[in-house]
Backbone:
């Protein structure tokens, strides 16, 4: 009888405790209760944001929530999104550790790389060992990079475009742009003779196989594990070829004059495996990895991630830049006049042996080209979603809200790039919004910033470039940032700088196209951007027609 009497009371007590723990405390008592929830249930249930992620609306949903509710929004009982400069400084420059979400970017059965390392101390060691070879000064002054740029642009890309223009054959810019990004970076990593060969005529099937495997792996589609394994095997083969080349350079000639002649021919026709050589040496010495196979797999995992980033980053940016330019012939003409006035040696055919430091610096300084790339990366960010971190011990205060330790916190480029007070008509592609930031005042400011002067003393809260965040910021930002973009950089103490390596690739490709050709859209079905881990076109294509520009 007593048991029967007490059981309902016990059940009521358990119910009340659970109700308090899972509903009342997170919704009313927790410090996070002061943060506006993105949905009425977000304070005590994670189902709302989980569902938005599942149906591919995460970034759009978070961006809309910030527009309604302000810079700090609660997404779930233990998750917060931030869209403010204060948040960027404290979360990303402050070195908050990544969440386990990043482990999906490991390769070779969990072998870590800079994208998947969770703890800052391990990440810092690896990053410092290779960051110099991605710096703007290194790239512009590197004879190997200059030679590689010539090979990829003048020898491989432009002949494909010229043949398409002469034969009136349409081109899938998304496929070609992704292939160019992958080939360019792998050439820098392994040498032009040992990297990927995806752009040249006759390599279309190989390019499509590579891109299909890469997208299947990235998106986790059916067959993702098999696709990843194929790509990993391909990367290992390139590592072994680069390793063999490095050993042949350092060893004495053992097989007589024939081997010496073969080596000299290769030196003239190929570039040095810059990234692989730097990585493998650092892994063996600074990370104390003595086993050659283990060291090679670590290097392969790192280069795999960087190649993947270059593939989708360049492919997406070039696709949407050409999409917008193809709809605006007057902007095409303005860009072409700027390129022609700069006298860049990118006209087809070209007799250049390399693209010199002066050429790369000229390309870097073109304001119209720069504004086109900046606006494309703002409006069509290749990685639009949140970059998750854990709040460290002691908690943090952002924009007046205290956020306790252990909470998942993030910012997303999609939300940051749609701040209406910073980017009016944010959904519209307006490259002219950037031209006012490239005047002499900005140049003076950039010199101040180079000396690590406080950001607040240099730029206003509404400065477009402070909110520009396509590649992250802080010590964990995209390591290949200097490879892609030759733009203007923010390098204050908070390191809100843009990505250089991808800018270089993007600008070289766009300059090569529009100095020689006009573009028109043939098929843009599915051009709307995915809301996923990468912002590729839904249709994974943009088909354009090319017509030769008349020589002056």
Residues:
């Amino acid at each position: 009888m007593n048991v029967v009497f007490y059981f309902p009371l016990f059940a009521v007590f358990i119910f009340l405790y659970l109700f308090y723990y899972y509903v009342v405390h997170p919704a009313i008592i927790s410090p996070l209760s002061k943060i506006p929830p993105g949905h009425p249930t977000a304070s005590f249930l994670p189902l709302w944001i989980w569902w938005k992620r599942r149906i591919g609306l995460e970034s759009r949903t978070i961006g809309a929530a910030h527009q309604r509710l302000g810079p700090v929004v609660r997404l779930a009982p233990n998750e917060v999104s931030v869209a403010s400069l204060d948040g960027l400084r404290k979360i990303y420059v402050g070195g908050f550790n990544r969440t386990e979400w990043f482990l999906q970017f490991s390769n070779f059965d969990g072998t870590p790389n800079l994208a998947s390392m969770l703890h800052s101390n391990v990440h810092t060691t690896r990053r410092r060992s290779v960051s110099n070879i991605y710096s703007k000064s290194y790239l512009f002054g590197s004879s190997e990079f200059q030679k590689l740029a010539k090979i990829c642009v003048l020898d491989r890309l432009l002949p494909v475009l010229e043949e398409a223009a002469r034969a009136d054959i349409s081109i899938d810019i998304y496929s070609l742009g992704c292939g160019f990004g992958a080939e360019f970076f792998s050439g820098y990593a392994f040498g032009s003779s040992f990297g990927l060969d995806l752009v040249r005529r006759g390599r279309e099937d190989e390019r499509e196989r590579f891109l299909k495997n890469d997208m299947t792996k990235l998106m986790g589609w059916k067959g993702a594990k098999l696709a990843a394994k194929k790509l990993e095997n391909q990367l290992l083969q390139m590592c072994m070829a680069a390793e063999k080349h490095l050993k042949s350079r350092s060893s004495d000639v053992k097989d007589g004059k024939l081997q010496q002649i073969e080596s000299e021919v290769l030196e003239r026709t190929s570039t040095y495996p810059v990234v692989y050589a730097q990585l493998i040496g650092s892994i063996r010495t600074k990370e104390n990895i003595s086993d050659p196979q283990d060291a090679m797999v670590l290097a392969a995992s790192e280069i795999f991630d960087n190649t993947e980033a270059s593939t989708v980053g360049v492919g997406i940016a070039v696709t949407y830049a050409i999409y917008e330019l193809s709809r605006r012939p007057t902007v095409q003409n303005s860009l072409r006049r700027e390129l022609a006035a700069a006298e860049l040696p990118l006209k087809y055919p070209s007799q250049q042996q390399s693209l010199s430091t002066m050429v790369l610096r000229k390309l870097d300084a073109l304001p119209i080209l720069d504004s086109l790339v900046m606006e494309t990366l703002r409006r069509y960010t290749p990685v639009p979603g949140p970059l998750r971190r854990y709040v460290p011990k002691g908690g943090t205060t952002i924009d007046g809200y205290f956020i306790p330790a252990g909470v998942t916190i993030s910012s997303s480029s999609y939300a940051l790039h749609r701040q209406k007070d910073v980017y009016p008509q944010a959904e519209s592609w307006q490259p002219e919004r950037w031209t006012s930031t490239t005047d002499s005042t900005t140049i003076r400011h950039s010199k101040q910033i180079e000396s690590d002067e406080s950001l607040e003393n240099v730029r206003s809260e509404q400065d477009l470039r402070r909110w520009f965040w396509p590649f992250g910021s802080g010590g964990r930002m995209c390591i290949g940032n200097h490879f892609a973009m030759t733009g203007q950089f923010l390098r204050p103490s908070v390191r809100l700088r843009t990505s250089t390596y991808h800018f270089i690739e993007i600008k070289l490709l766009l300059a090569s196209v529009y100095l020689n050709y006009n573009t028109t859209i043939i098929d843009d079905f599915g051009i709307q951007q995915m809301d996923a881990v990468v912002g590729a076109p839904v249709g994974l294509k943009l088909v354009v027609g090319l017509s030769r520009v008349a020589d002056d």
Summary: Confidence is low (pLDDT under 50) at residues 438-458, 484-498. Residues 108 and 301 are 7 Å apart (CA to CA). The two ends are 103 Å apart (CA to CA). The chain has two domains: 2-98, 120-383+418-467+470-548.
